[in-house]
Amino acid sequence: MIAFCSGSGPVTPINFSIERKTLMDVTTIFGPNTLRILVTVMTAFIALSVIFVRLKASSRPVTIRKIIIPPVGMATGALMFVYPPTRIPFWWGLIAFAVGWLLFSYPLIKTTKFELKDSEVYVQRSAGFAFILLGLLVLRLLLHEVVQDYVSIPQTAGIFFLLAFGMITRWRLYMLREYYNINPPQAQSN
Q: DSSP secondary structure string, the chain?
């Protein structure tokens, strides 16, 4: 808004804002409760498929690329914050990232061990790994339901994105360090 003055008389404000056509809100199609159930079911399905993929991946050698790609690919999800309804206060984001970094990554770090077989690095299968991923899923879904009562659904998505990003970043940095411990760079070139 700009104030316009024609010399004499009162200042007349001129509104230069452009009318934006908004996209149809998903909650108007499904309703908030149905949307909440759909998001929970989709999250559970995705998480179970991740668990399945992680268990299958332990039979293949680990490479630096396989360690680094997930957090780099996930970082592109930060583009969600370009969409204004997903934006959250800085401190909320920092706290969510710290909770993922400090708390949620810890069980993953404790259950991830490497072994060297035929000069290739493999992740040791852990009986508790699938249960820990399931436990993290349940905890995340419960926290999601609580947080969702206080902030909008898009903001909840932003908070849990940052929580998951903090978790996977620390876990993958740990994996990278352990990979180099078991397979130093000079051993890779031989």
A: -EEE--SSS--EEE--PPPPPPPPPHHHHH-HHHHHHHHHHHHHHHHHHHHHHHHHHTTS---HHHHHHHHHHHHGGGGGGGSGGG---HHHHHHHHHHIIIIIHHHHHHH--EEEETTEEEEPP-HHHHHHHHHHHHHHHHHHHHHHTTS-HHHHHHHHHHHHHHHHHHHHHHHHHHHHHHS-HHHHH-
Q: What is the pTM of this model?
A: 0.71
Phi, psi of 104 (to 5 degrees): -70, -30
- How much is the pLDDT for 173? 97
Mean pLDDT of successive 10-residue stretches along the chain, which has 190 residues: 46 46 58 75 79 75 92 94 93 95 92 88 80 79 79 86 94 95 70
Do the beta carbons of residue 169 and residue 99 sit within 8 Å?
no
Q: Cβ of 56: how many Cβ atoms within 10 Å?
A: 9
N-terminal to C-terminal alpha carbon distance within the chain = 67
Locate 103 and state its tokens: 């708390």
Kindly give the interhelix angle for 153-182 and 64-75, rounded to the nearest 10 degrees.
Answer: 160
